[in-house]
Amino acid sequence: MALNFRGAEAVVKEILWADKPAISKFRNPRGYRHPDLDQKLIRERLRNEARLLEKLAEFGLPVPSLYSVNLDGTLIMEKIEGPSLEEFLKNNNDISKIKDLGRLLSNIHASGIVHGDPTSSNFIVGSKLHAVDFGLGSVDDSNEARATDLRVLLESLEGHHSELNCRETLLDAYSVWEKSNSVLDRLKIIERRGRYNLMRG
Question: Which of 28, 37, 60, 106 has its CA 20 to 30 A from that of 133?
Answer without folding.
Answer: 37
